[in-house]
């Protein structure tokens, strides 16, 4: 017998959430296991999974639900037998990237997570810029980052890479792991227990799914398939990204994401580059760009070889990415405002024309 879904308490549902849910329009409550274009797979306890549409996406207002969200669900009056997500509980943490595309807007990869496992494969040299970008996003989520170097069985001295990463990520646990030899799997296991939720991020092919399978004792499916019911009790097979482990703890296996653009991640940037961020407060000019100004505390770090130049350059590049995004957001807001103004003027115009022709008609 395959376990469909655990009870809500072991998925992190709390008494506080119960009090919140009581105030919503709710037939069911649950935790989102997957989202796809506004349709969510939701664990609703009692061994049940349902698919539900997001009311906010349909109405194009408010938040879109994300994997890991705690939600309430109600019947969809417009579509017989279907469910709607009626409310989303405030998020404790959110792993967020900039959504792909021209419009500057966020996309939540995982909500209400405790740890983010930032992963890279040791079958290739460590990609420091990629790792730093992932760490910015991980720190910015509000959860705690952990670096996992996978496939440690592929190199002679995995600890050399671990030491190099500890240099750039002070205070972040870094583990060289291998699902083949079992190296450090117990240390990973130690971080996933009870209702703790962990998101895995990194390129595809680095061993995320293999790790999930190892942690679940090979018991969990290859693809995260579960069976969902609709309100009529029909069953369909659906996939999920949120995977409860048999010995406690929950994993969010994000699909291998190539492009991880930052979204409003100033705090994450500060936390991922603590020494550089701290120094930047001590430059002579408060608007120092850290490029060639005199008495620049950031440039002093590289000159005195406290921090290497590559890392400072990358910090500045990520900061420029955020600055550019702020400009884009301002531009989009301006355009939207103009559009609203124009359409308001058009409405007034139309009304004026209508009342004029009305007067003409009356005169006739
Ligand atoms: N050598 C080695 N290969 C691994 C390890 N873990 C996973 N792999 C292999 O890496 C490939 C990609 O793994 P997968 O879990 O699908 O990666 P994902 O795309 O990140 O989910 C597979 O061929 C795995 O067998 C490991 O610890 N050592
Ligand atoms: Mg995978
Ligand atoms: Zn400076």
Characterization of the model:
- The termini are far apart.
- The strands form 4 sheets. Strands 10-9-8-11-15-14 form a 6-stranded mixed β-sheet, with helices on both faces.
- The protein is about 35% helix and about 25% strand.
- The longest helix is centred in the last third of the chain and has 55 residues, at about 310-364.
- It has helices at about 15-20, 55-60, 130-140, 160-170, 185-190, 210-215, 265-270, 275-280, 295-305, 310-364; strands at about 30-35, 40-45, 50-55, 70-75, 85-90, 95-100, 105-110, 115-120, 145-150, 175, 195-200, 225-230, 235-240, 240-245, 250-255.
- Helix 3 packs across helix 7 (about 265-270) and helix 7 packs across helix 8.
- It has 3 domains: about 10-90, Beta Barrel (OB fold (Dihydrolipoamide Acetyltransferase, E2P)), CATH 2.40.50.140; about 95-225 and about 240-255, P-loop containing nucleotide triphosphate hydrolases (Rossmann fold, 3-Layer(aba) Sandwich); about 275-364, Ribonucleotide Reductase Protein R1, domain 1 (Orthogonal Bundle).
- Guanosine-5'-diphosphate binds next to helix 6.
pLDDT below 50 for ≥5 consecutive residues: which ranges?
A: none
First-to-last CA distance: 81 Å
- The CATH superfamily of the largest domain appears as P-loop containing nucleotide triphosphate hydrolases
Overall pLDDT score: 88
Series of H and E elements:
HEEEHEEEEEHEHEHEHEEEEHHHH
Helix amount, in percent? Answer: 25-40%
The count of strands amounts to: 15
The general outline is flat
Strand content: 15-25%
Query: What profile does the largest beta sheet have?
Result: 6 strands, mixed
Q: What's the Cα radius of gyration?
A: 25 Å
CATH architecture of the largest domain: 3-Layer(aba) Sandwich
Which molecules are bound besides the chains?
guanosine-5'-diphosphate, magnesium ion, zinc ion
Number of helices: 10
**Class from secondary-structure proportions:** alpha/beta
């Amino acid at each position: 017998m395959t376990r469909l879904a655990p009870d809500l308490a072991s998925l992190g549902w709390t008494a506080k959430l119960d009090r919140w849910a009581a105030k919503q329009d709710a037939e069911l409550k649950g935790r989102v296991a997957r989202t796809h274009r506004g349709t969510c797979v939701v664990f609703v306890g009692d061994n049940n999974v349902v698919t539900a549409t997001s009311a906010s996406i349909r109405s194009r207002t408010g938040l879109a639900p994300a994997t890991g969200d705690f939600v309430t669900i109600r019947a969809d009056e417009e579509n017989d037998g279907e469910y709607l997500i009626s409310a989303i509980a405030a998020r404790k943490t959110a792993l967020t990237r900039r959504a792909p595309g021209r419009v500057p807007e966020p996309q939540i990869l995982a909500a209400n997570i405790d740890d983010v496992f930032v992963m890279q494969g040791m079958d290739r040299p460590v990609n420091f810029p990629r790792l730093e970008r992932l760490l910015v996003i991980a720190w910015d989520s509000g959860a705690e980052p952990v670096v996992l170097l996978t496939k440690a069985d592929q190199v002679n001295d995995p600890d050399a890479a671990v030491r190099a990463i500890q240099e750039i990520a002070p205070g972040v646990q870094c583990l060289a792991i291998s699902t083949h030899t079992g190296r450090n799997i117990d240390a990973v296991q130690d971080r996933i227990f009870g209702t703790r939720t962990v998101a895995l991020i990194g390129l595809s092919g680095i061993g995320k799914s293999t790790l999930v399978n190892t942690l679940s004792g090979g018991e969990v499916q290859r693809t995260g398939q579960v069976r969902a019911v609709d309100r009529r009790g029909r069953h369909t097979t659906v996939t999920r990204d949120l995977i409860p482990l048999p010995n406690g703890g929950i994993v969010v296996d994000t699909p291998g994401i190539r492009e991880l653009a930052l979204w409003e991640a100033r705090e994450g940037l500060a936390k991922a580059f603590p020494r550089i961020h701290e120094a930047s407060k001590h430059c002579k000019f408060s608007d120092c760009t850290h490029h060639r100004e005199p008495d620049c505390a950031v440039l002093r770090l590289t000159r005195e070889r406290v921090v290497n130049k590559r890392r400072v350059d990358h910090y500045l590049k990520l900061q420029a990415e955020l600055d550019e995004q702020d400009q884009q957001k301002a531009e989009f807001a301006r355009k939207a405002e103009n559009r609203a103004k124009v359409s308001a003027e058009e409405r007034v115009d139309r009304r004026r024309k209508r009342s004029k022709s009305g007067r003409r008609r009356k005169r006739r």
